[in-house]
Design a protein that fits this description.
Chain lengths: 484, 123, 351
């Protein structure tokens, strides 16, 4: 058949795809709209509470549950002492820090021993949640610091280190923190606040994360918030603003929060133990943990809450070069597919309410399939234009709507940030942020879609899971940067 | 004139303490975080320090520890001021080497008399 | 179709533009007012501080009374929660004379949620009895954060008369309130409210009894031991039992030793046995050491570990026993060694 002969068929196919694309687009935007409205409502209650948050009360209350802060570390000799000190000087009535030296080949442990006067203790560690790497020794700090350091063999997985720490933790709440994260002094009390306000129901909370690139810090605390120098990082600042101010806030309001960032989350220890801790075979361990918490809690048939705290509390370094970013995003995407697959009982299951009927399908159709649709659409558009099936103006308009909508979301999160937290107080930030949200659509967005697609394919091919388990420093946390 | 260093990140309290002490004839250095507190203490060698426990960069307890390792400042009386009233904080404060302890909300008059007492003790 | 697209593009462009403009305006207004108000604030604060220290000249006093700015109200209100004693009395009577208090009471009855919360927080800080009623009615608000705020404010107000309202709020399942907030509020009200707190045992539900146990332990008076013992022995709720055991430990009366020892029995819930170990250690009676040491060989490792820790806190008698176990071949040896090592690490060093 000649090319001309195929034309009517292609035209029909394109028309069908066209309608499909349009309804897909409409559905996606409706969900965004819901999230936006919810985020605005949340803003209202934030202002209401701001006048008297009760943080002071909570700091002096004996009812404030003590927290075990768990910090996995692999080759972190440069910053480990400062990070540990920063955690122990967090504003919180009672906390212990457990650092897991996960098979470091550098002086991570020696630095800790010198700084905190560590002493080895004999300890029988119960296996409440499974661990693989053999534990060599347990050390505690002399004096008033409540610090425990576990030395263990690494199996190349952050989750294994966290599980080991869960087995040693003594307090009812656990907080998992990345060793390279910079926390605000009131980070823990803010994120633990929902547990204090509603101890019967809250089982997990997550804090908002911002890129730390470009910011200055002193003694493990941010002193000045600035925009990163590299455009790739600037774009990620916008991504994070969108994800946390619109996405997570909205999902949390719907009672359907699926991801709590590994860089800063607080969980009830008994619940984490009941579900067997982190799944050591999972790639998207953070989302997987939360998904299993939802499944477990629904199974108990008692009301529960997984809450997101939208105030920025934790700052982490984001990749500034394409190769590393590509690897990170590929891994997130693979992790998401993996999580959705291993917890497929959630999908479209009315038993799980908004989570099963809205959030999980959203993640499947728009986060996993999103890059497929987007790239196919892009490709088809070019084909259609080539065959003259659509008029250039029409295609251009359609593209413009898609891009403008993306920009709208970015600007909206800028507005929300401006009204609520305004942590970026330089005028230059505003200008750079607006430019970033525009240029993001030309190049970055398509590249990102491609990376995510790669991740989806890798997940489908079930490639060996350990080969790129250690991109940057061996321990990488999952914090979806997309609007999720 | 006797110099007193006051460090608190709450401007209301800082001003209140600053004024009360200045009126009573002390020279006051008022700073708003732990980093400046250490800097100014090293530079000016105050006769007494009043430190907030929860302030940025170095908590009052950390500043106290820092002072106790400095040969010039290890005997400077330190009064800790904090919103918390938890026992373990008092304990930590005293273990670090604080001389006295006051919880917020506080009475400016009471603070003054404690300052005088602390200064009297060292003379 | 095409028209729809054109319209959407235009709409999107307009809303993006509008949002941008709003953002810029908000930022402009904020930076402007912040700069201006910082100067103004310093001036007003200085004036207020001198007023509180009773150092204003007559002329300045006249001046002070005539200041009519919301900023000054805010500064004075913020100052309220930071001072006590004479300075606070001066501030409160000043706020009265400005009519700020009457205005706030009025505002708690209005509909706007934000205003109501602010007014409530203010009244709580002032600590005047007239604030109690409007605050108590806010306990029944349909928004949880408003209810929580009301609880905190009642705590700051510190009136023993609000204890019954607080206790019934803690049991309200339709309109739940945070347990911890009620606890803190009751703690702030303190010993004057204890009578009403105890009365809560008669009519209260599980959460109310749990709060009661906690408060009685906090106040730490020996006369409440009997009430707590009966809660420990007879209450159907584990939560209440746990809190009673902890409270008894905190009070430290030897009368509690026997009923507590009974909670160590192996058929009792693990959580209760663990808490009881800690409570007995806190009481610190030498005769209970042996009983706790036996638990080192308990089947439940959590109980064994808690027992080892408890023994390590019971002075020379406990440590001696731990050393014996540590040297033995029994199951408990590991726990004894751990507890001893921890104790050694935490002991104040010779330096």
């Amino acid at each position: 058949m000649s090319v001309a002969g195929m034309a009517p068929i292609i035209a029909t196919v394109l028309r069908i795809l066209n309608w499909f694309g349009l309804s897909y687009f409409l559905a996606l935007n409706t969900i965004y709209l819901i999230l936006i409205i919810l985020a605005s409502i949340n803003l209202g209650s934030y202002f209401r509470r701001k006048s008297l948050t009760g943080l002071e009360d909570a700091l002096s209350s004996p009812a404030t549950l003590p927290v075990s802060v768990l910090m996995p570390a692999h080759d972190e000799e440069a910053g480990i002492v400062e990070s540990a000190r920063a955690v122990m000087s967090l504003q919180y009535p009672q906390l212990e820090l457990i650092v897991v030296d996960d098979g470091s080949s550098d002086a991570t442990f020696d630095r800790l021993r010198e700084a905190f006067d560590l002493i080895e203790i004999p300890m029988q560690i119960p296996e409440l949640v499974p661990t693989l790497g053999q534990i060599d020794s347990v050390h505690i700090a002399r004096g008033l610091n409540d610090l425990t350091v576990i030395r263990k063999h690494s199996v190349g997985k952050k989750t294994d280190a966290v599980n080991a720490a869960i087995n040693v933790a003594k307090y009812p709440l656990i907080c998992v923190v990345d060793a390279d994260a910079i926390l605000d002094a009131d980070a823990l009390i803010k994120v633990a606040m929902p547990f204090i306000d509603d101890p019967q129901r809250v089982v997990a909370t997550g804090g908002a994360i911002r890129p730390s690139n470009g910011c200055s810090a002193y003694r493990g605390r941010i002193t000045e918030v600035r925009m990163p120098k590299k455009w790739l990082a600037k774009i990620q600042v916008i991504e994070y603003l969108r994800a946390f101010l619109l996405g997570r806030t909205g999902w949390s309001k719907l009672g359907a929060l699926l991801i709590i960032s590994g860089a800063f989350g607080v969980f009830r220890r008994d619940v984490v133990i009941a579900i067997g801790g982190y799944d050591l075979s999972s790639i998207g361990e953070d989302a997987d943990l939360v998904a299993r918490i939802h499944i477990y809690m629904r199974g108990l048939k008692t009301p529960y809450k997984v809450t997101f705290v939208s105030e920025p509390v934790c700052w982490t370094e984001v990749p500034e070069n394409i190769t590393v970013l590509r690897r990170q995003r590929r891994r997130w995407s693979r992790g998401l597919v993996d999580t959705l697959w291993s917890n497929k009982s959630l999908f479209m299951n009315p038993k799980y309410g908004t989570l099963g009927l809205l959030a999980v399908p959203y993640f499947f159709f728009f986060e996993v399939l999103g890059p497929v649709v987007e790239l196919t659409g892009f490709f088809l558009l070019i084909v259609a234009l080539y065959f003259n099936f659509v008029n250039v103006l029409f295609a251009g308009l359609f593209l413009a709507v898609a891009i403008l909508y993306g920009i709208l979301l970015s600007i909206l999160s800028l507005l929300i940030e401006e009204v609520s937290f305004h942590r970026y107080n330089k005028w230059k930030f505003l200008y750079q942020a607006v430019v970033s949200s525009i240029i993001e659509n030309f190049g970055f967005r398509q590249m990102h879609a491609y990376w995510r697609l790669e991740g989806v394919f890798q997940a489908l091919r079930r490639t060996d899971r350990s080969w790129e388990a250690m991109p940057r420093k061996g321990l990488v946390s999952d914090q979806s940067g997309s609007i999720s | 004139m006797t110099t007193i260093l006051v460090a608190d990140d709450d401007p209301d309290i800082l001003e209140l303490v600053d004024y009360k002490l200045s009126q009573s004839g002390y020279a006051v250095i008022a700073v708003s975080d732990g980093r400046q507190a250490i800097e100014h203490a090293r530079k000016h060698h105050p006769a007494l320090m009043i430190l907030d426990v929860t302030m940025p960069f170095h908590s009052g307890i950390e500043v106290t520890l820092e002072m106790r390792t400095d040969p010039d400042l290890k005997n400077t009386p330190i009064i800790l001021l904090t919103a918390k009233s938890m026992e373990q904080d008092t304990e930590r404060g005293f273990a670090a080497g604080a001389t006295d302890y006051m919880t917020k909300p506080f009475s400016p008059r009471e603070l003054l008399s404690r300052v005088q007492a602390a200064l009297g003790r060292t003379v | 179709m095409r028209l729809a697209l054109v319209v959407s593009v235009l709409l999107l462009l307009i809303s993006i533009f509008a949002m941008l403009v709003t953002t810029v305006i908000i930022r402009l207004v904020r930076t402007k007012t912040e700069a201006r108000s910082a100067v103004q604030e310093a001036k007003l604060r200085g004036l207020l501080v001198r007023f509180l220290s009773e150092d204003l000249s007559l002329f300045e006093l006249q001046e002070l009374k005539r200041i009519d700015s919301s900023q000054f109200d805010e500064i004075s209100e913020a100052m309220l929660s930071k001072v006590k004693g004479r300075a606070k009395d001066i501030l409160v009577s000043f706020l009265y004379s400005r009519g700020a208090i009457d205005k706030a009471i009025e505002r708690t009855r209005k509909l706007g949620c934000l205003g109501r919360c602010k007014a409530a927080a203010f009244l709580g800080n002032v600590g005047i009895p007239e604030a109690r009623e409007p605050l108590e009615s806010m306990l029944r608000d349909r928004r949880q954060d408003v209810r929580t705020l009301a609880i905190r404010c009642l705590g700051q107000l510190g009136s023993p008369e609000s204890v019954p309202a607080l206790l019934s709020a803690v049991d309200d399942h339709r309109r739940p309130v945070p347990f911890g907030a009620v606890l803190v509020a009751l703690m702030r009200i303190g010993s004057q409210g204890k009578g009403s707190v105890k009365a809560g045992l008669e009519f209260g539900g599980t959460r109310c009894r749990a709060v009661t146990a906690e408060i009685l332990g906090m106040e730490g008076s020996t006369e409440d031991t009997t009430v707590l013992i009966s809660l420990l022995e007879n209450d159907p709720s584990l939560e209440v039992k746990l809190r009673s055991a902890r409270a008894l430990g905190r009070i430290g009366s030897p009368k509690a030793i026997r009923p507590l020892s009974e909670c160590l029995e192996s058929h009792k819930p693990t959580a209760l046995r663990i808490v009881t170990c800690g409570a007995l250690a806190a009481i610190g009676d030498r005769d209970t050491v042996q009983e706790i040491i036996t638990l080192l060989n308990d089947e439940d490792y959590q109980v064994a570990r808690a027992a080892a820790k408890a023994a390590s806190q019971m002075g020379p008698a406990g440590i001696e026993q731990l050393n014996l176990i540590a040297a033995s071949n029994s199951r408990g040896a590991a726990f004894a060694k751990e507890a001893l090592a921890r104790l050694a690490a935490k002991a104040p060093s010779a330096s």
